[in-house]
């Protein structure tokens, strides 16, 4: 019994440190998934807008830029591009959005995620 005396404090510190690392890891995964989902949503919505009959691919890129900037902040949007290619059914509009993944939801991190979406403008 005498050898175990005072052992609760080091155990508490070790367990708390591991739980803190686990919690911060979960927060980082949540930040990554949020950035990925917002990039996918912005790209697909931009492609849909660009595929409208009276719109261009640039209209879709502007819409994707606005959505990504609203969701993640202006500094998180790294690149937005759009292209239009002819196909048998009509023009195929493709929008690519690349956003930065924040570190713990606070600062822009070194990792980025990109999403590409396409939509067809039927003629």
Order of neighbouring strands in the sheet with most strands: 1-2-3
**Class of secondary structure makeup:** alpha+beta
What fraction of residues sit in β-strands?
A: 25-35%
What is the helix/strand order?
HHEEE
Distance between the termini: 84 Å
Largest sheet report = 3 strands, antiparallel
Radius of gyration: 22 Å
How many H/I helices? Answer: 2
Shape: rod-shaped
Instruction: Please report the total strand number as a whole number.
Output: 3
- Number of self-contained structural domains: 1
Percentage of helical residues?
40-55%
Q: Which stretches of 5+ consecutive residues score pLDDT under 50?
A: none
Q: Mean pLDDT, as a whole number? A: 91
Organism: Galactobacter valiniphilus
Transmembrane segments: 12-35
Domain TadE-like: 6-48
Keywords: Membrane, Transmembrane, Transmembrane helix
């Amino acid at each position: 019994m005498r050898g175990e005396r005072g052992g609760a404090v080091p155990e508490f510190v070790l367990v708390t440190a591991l739980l803190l690392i686990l919690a911060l890891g979960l927060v980082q995964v949540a930040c990554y998934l949020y950035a990925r989902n917002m990039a996918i949503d912005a790209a697909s919505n931009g492609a849909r807008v660009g595929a409208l009959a009276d719109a261009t691919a640039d209209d879709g890129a502007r819409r994707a830029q606005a959505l990504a900037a609203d969701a993640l902040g202006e500094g998180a949007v790294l690149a937005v591009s759009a292209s239009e290619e002819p196909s048998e059914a009509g023009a195929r509009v493709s929008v690519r959005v690349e956003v930065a993944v924040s570190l713990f939801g606070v600062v822009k991190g070194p990792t980025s995620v990109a999403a590409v979406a396409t939509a067809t403008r039927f003629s």
